[in-house]
Amino acid sequence: MSWAASVSLGTSPLGQTRPAWVKSTDLNQGGALGVGGRWLALAGLLGVFGLGCVPPSALPVRGVLAGAPGRLAAGELELSGGVIGFMDGQPPWVSAPLVGGGWVATALTERLSVELGGFAVPLGRGAGFGFLGARWTGAVHSTSQGTLFADVDVGLGAGGTYCTPDNCPGSRSPRVFELGGTQGGAVGYTVGPLSVYARVKLEEGKTALGHLVLWPAGVLGVELRIGHVLSLGVASGAFSLAELGRPFGFAPLYQLQVTLFLDAPWRAAPTTSATAR
Asked: What pLDDT score does 230 carry?
């Protein structure tokens, strides 16, 4: 997910200074919410810094980006989890991970897989989402040195954000329900146990309180396969926000990911992995 805030907003109720590196226009135009409820470009920061939710902004339903393409073979299960933190232009340069998510995926064939997962903002007011998606993967080009993979994915999700009436004008409930979608794609090159990749995605979120919110994101990543059961990955990039009537903002981020690979219980016999290293 993407978080951006005005650089002049000061300190949150949790005593944390909001990141000075955030790139944004003035997010409190008109001062409609007063000093205690100034606009943040991304609803994620509202949860992270304990400010509640300020509709109509909606969160992504997936948040954490998938790893390198082409890593799951037919009949395998993938148990994957990741966390996201921010990068700064001044010491200490990076924040601790602030949000996270995970999913279970299985490859029905060498090309088609399905996944079920969730995404959470555990700090502040809190938010949680679940999603169901499908992914198509293909080997674009293969040589004796390595393989170029590409994938595309689509998904739907739902969830909600916990807030109070004071911080959610227009809402009569302490919970704001949201529906959303996610689409994305990636290209990656695998040589032995190492994969490098570029991944982009677009997420949409909509609550009953406001406009449709779009969340574009992109990262460059590296993934290391350790044996046949474990993969470690790190990626860096940025999230952004697009919503009618809102200033544009973006925030640089990093992502850490761990994945376990298992044989699915219904796997009849071993198959040759498209990602064998």
From this structure: 96
Question: Phi/psi at 68 (nearest 5 deg)?
Answer: -65, 140
In the prediction, which pLDDT does 207 show? 81
Q: Which of 133-142, 193-202, 242-251 has the lowest mean pLDDT?
A: 242-251
Residue 94 token pair: 């990076």
Using alpha carbons, select from 38, 44, 66 the residue that is nearest to residue 128.
Answer: 44
Dihedral angle at the C-alpha atoms of 90, 5, 203, 247, nearest 10 degrees? -130
Residue-level pLDDT at 123: 59
Q: Please say whether the dihedral angle defined by the alpha carbons of residues 3, 93, 81 and 133, taken in this order, is positive or negative.
A: positive
DSSP letter at 47? H
Three-state SS at 74: coil
Distance (Å, whole) CA 242 – CA 60: 12
Q: Please say whether the beta carbons of 28 and 6 come within 8 A.
A: yes
The b/e string for 29-39 (b: 16+ C-beta within 10 A; e otherwise) is: eeeeeeeebbb
- Say if residue 198's pLDDT is above 90: yes
Instruction: Write out pLDDT tens, residues 234-247.
Output: 999 998 888 877 77
- Would you say residue 50 has pLDDT above 60? no
Element of type H or E holding 48: helix 43-48
Q: Which two tokens stand for residue 231?
A: 């993969």
Q: In whole angstroms, how far apart are CA 44 and each of 92, 104, 127, 270?
A: 21, 24, 9, 42
Q: Are 199 and 66 in contact (CB under 8 A)?
A: yes
